[in-house]
Amino acid sequence: MIAGGGFGGFYAARTLERVLPHHSAHVTLVSDVNFLLFTPLLPGAAAGTLEPRHVVVPLREELPGTDLWLGRVAGAEPQRGELIVDSLDGRRHELRYDQLIVALGSISRTQPIAGLVEHAIGFKTLADAIALRNRAISMLEIAETIHDAETRAEYLTFAFVGDLYPRCKVQGMRWVLLEARERVMPEVAPSLAAFAVRELRGRGIEIHTGVTIDRVEDRSLSLSDGRVIPARTVVWTAGVRAHPVLARCGLPLAEGGRVEVDRTMRVTGHANVWAIGDAAAVPDPARKGSMSPPTAQHAIRQGRRVARNVAAELGAGGRVRTFKYRTLGVFVDLGRHQAVASTLGIRWRGFPAWFLARTYHMANMPGTKRKLRLLVDWTVALLFSRDTAELGQLGNPSRLE
Ligand SMILES: Cc1cc2nc3c(=O)[nH]c(=O)nc-3n(C[C@H](O)[C@H](O)[C@H](O)COP(=O)(O)OP(=O)(O)OC[C@H]3O[C@@H](n4cnc5c(N)ncnc54)[C@H](O)[C@@H]3O)c2cc1C
Hints:
The protein is 30% helix and 23% strand. The chain is an alpha/beta fold. The strands form 8 sheets. The chain has a 7-stranded mixed beta sheet with strand order 7-6-5-2-1-8-19, covered by helices on one side. A hairpin with a 4-residue loop joins strand 5 and strand 6 (82-87). The protein is globular, with a radius of gyration of 23 Å. Residues 4-9, 30-33, 39-40, 42, 72-73, 103-105, 123-124, 243, 245, 277-279, 294-297, 299 line the site of flavin-adenine dinucleotide.
């Protein structure tokens, strides 16, 4: 049984389908959504260059040999070998397992900042990305109806592409990037981060480092240096933290709330339970004494390895091995055909980095059909401007009168 159908869970299921002999085992994947969200492409969905459906991979389509069980994991009873799951209609189930792989991911890490939870939007799920896009467009539509420049500024404090909003163009839009550390993008070399900052500032994006947020209100946010920025849209992307459901799974937790595992990803004290990805404190083979960073790169490799380890436990060949992986590289897509990248010690910037990032993400998208859809979306985006339809009413049909 696999809990969670994200990068880790998906690749674990896919590898089990390949390495286990036919009909030798029953693989069940429990997930609260029936797709894998390809997070590196989420900004494309928010920006409108990619169709929302094209940044996800339908699990049923890509995992034909796995039994998909749609529901929300509420906890586990490892002593009894049971996973507790609430199905979509609210019924509670105790699902029996022989081997369990926990791959439940993480959630946005918030901080105790006044007004943050009430007023800011996250950027972790497909719903977050589409809500942000719809919000950006509706803010522009509202700003178009306001004559008072000061009030309009609150609506325009973030950027949006296009010349279709004449009044907004007159007053100008404002994107502000706030970073608590002294520099942005600590995961890339300082020279690449400096290139990215120059590129974004060149587009009129303000970047303020060494500053934190004291308070968020519906019409403004207050910074630690005393400044108040009038803004109605605040997007919170300050990292992730362990999924709270892990604390209800009866498993030992490491510092930070991730499940404690050894180098083979087996949970401490539980011979038949494994944990991977953002949900697990897997020792990082590249940095002694640290745990693996919460990245898709690591979750994918851990998923593949843990599947082979489970297959070995079930007697399907091979042996239980430790997780070995060194980060291949980092890509930061800056949009508008610009990116920075660092791969195997080589630094890339500008158009070559952007091309490399796109090629890499497309190569990693599972399934030929999905790859083609990306290619079509990207080609259309090259030829035409983005559309400005605000589709927030989707999913909220009006009631019959
Ligand atoms: C915007 C964004 C961009 C990113 N870009 C990159 C990148 O470019 N490169 C990179 O390497 N990493 C990137 N990451 C990080 C990467 O997405 C994560 O590290 C990776 O998804 C972790 O894989 P996982 O399997 O542990 O968790 P996830 O992929 O998050 O999967 C967890 C799964 O469990 C499901 N789930 C959660 N709770 C429950 C529950 N209670 N019951 C049932 N199912 C549940 C979720 O719906 C999800 O399908 C990005 C993350 C974000 C948010």
